[in-house]
Write a structure and sequence with these properties.
Blueprint: H1 5-13, E1 21-25, H2 29-43, E2 53-57, H3 58-63, H4 66-73, E3 83-89, H5 94-103, E4 109-114, H6 122-129, E5 133-137, H7 143-156, E6 160-161, H8 163-172, H9 177-191, E7 199-200, H10 202-208, H11 215-226, H12 229-242, H13 246-266, H14 275-283, H15 289-308, H16 313-337
Parallel strand pairs: 1-4, 1-5, 2-3, 3-4, 6-7
Length: 338
């Protein structure tokens, strides 16, 4: 059964009893995970309940397709309906699910997570056509979707938000739901619990977005993306004198690359005509998917090392920043030679 965007949230929160399985797929990996969690939680409130939830990887099912039916038919030791989760499903697994749907037993709900699937995908077609399954596509959040989530999240902590501040945050935060949630978590942590009349202003929003809350962090991130080694050198010296958090700088740079990757994969996702979207598009000129992934791996490793090792964080962060900036500089030079 193909689920429309209008029905997606409703059927995610309360999957029909007739569904044996539901497939969440699309470019917004964060929304895929969020909806899969919500569907699973509608059956088993505690997602850590090992008696009622089975977690299967795609690799496990490729080696042992019968495992899916076995888990779905199992009875929970202490009663209650079970959930079988399948993560990172790919198009080549259509036969696995086709075989399961043809003869499945039990009342477990199989929750499947996949990436972006084309309309020609055999896996997508299977779930859209079957009467006992649901297929829910997870698109990148539009500015209005982000605005709704921002308002709802702030309201939970007793905060309202000025229209200008809401517009700024809607454009500045990530297109990916998982990253958007992470940014909002940080924002509410800084704000704390508000009074009934507490309102987030644009100035507050601008000051709170950016991991270290420092202009230098954003400037360093921009220099890294641009591959501007000279500017990066000057900014790092300036930041060192100011006593900036190097974990924060690497984190802010990583998040910029994550936004660039999400923007690139979504084709703009409704932001392309905005000043923010135009800025991202300009920054993407020297980067492709492979180089973006390489940059994010280097930055993620550096951020983790600055948090977990006893070594000084400045050399770790600066080495990663220069390595990624050099990658950007090399790609820009190669582009000029074409």
């Amino acid at each position: 059964m193909r689920v429309s965007s209008a029905e997606a949230d409703k059927l995610t929160s309360a999957p029909p009893k007739a569904w044996a399985a539901v497939l969440f797929f699309g470019p917004n990996a964060g929304l895929v995970r969020e909806r899969a969690d919500r569907a699973a939680r509608s059956i088993v409130p505690d997602l850590a309940d090992a008696f009622r939830i089975a977690d299967l990887s795609a690799d496990v099912l490729k080696k042992d397709p019968a495992r899916l039916a076995d888990e779905a038919a199992s009875i929970a030791m202490f009663g209650g309906r079970r959930v079988v989760r399948v993560r990172d499903a790919v198009d080549g697994m259509a036969d696995v699910f086709d075989g399961f749907l043809a003869s499945h037993k039990g009342d477990a709900l199989v929750v499947v997570e996949a990436g972006d699937l084309t309309k020609a995908s055999a896996l997508r077609k299977l779930f859209e056509a079957a009467k006992t399954t649901g297929a829910i596509e997870c698109f990148d959040d539009r500015p209005e979707d982000a605005a709704k989530l921002i308002k709802e999240t702030l309201a939970e902590f007793g905060w309202k938000i000025e229209p200008e501040a809401l517009g700024y945050l809607s454009e500045a935060l990530s297109l990916d739901r998982r990253l958007l949630r992470a940014e909002l978590e940080k924002l509410t942590l800084y704000l704390g619990l508000g009074q009934p009349s507490s309102t987030v202003t644009r100035a507050q929003a601008q000051g709170l977005i950016g991991d270290s809350g420092s202009v230098e962090a954003d400037e360093i991130a921009d220099a890294v993306v641009a591959g501007d080694l000279r500017a990066l050198d000057l900014l790092i010296a300036k930041a060192a004198e100011a006593g900036i958090s190097w974990t924060g700088v690497v984190g802010a740079t990583l998040r910029l690359f994550q936004r660039l990757a999400a923007f690139s994969e979504s084709g703009g996702g409704g932001f392309s005509s905005s000043p923010y979207g135009q800025r991202l598009a300009a920054q993407l000129r020297n980067w492709d998917r492979t180089s973006l992934i390489g940059a994010m791996k280097l930055l993620a490793q550096a951020e983790a090392e600055t948090r977990t090792t006893v070594l000084p964080d400045a050399p770790i962060a600066q080495h990663a920043l220069f390595a990624v900036a050099e990658l950007g500089r090399a790609r820009a030079a190669a582009g000029r030679q074409r």
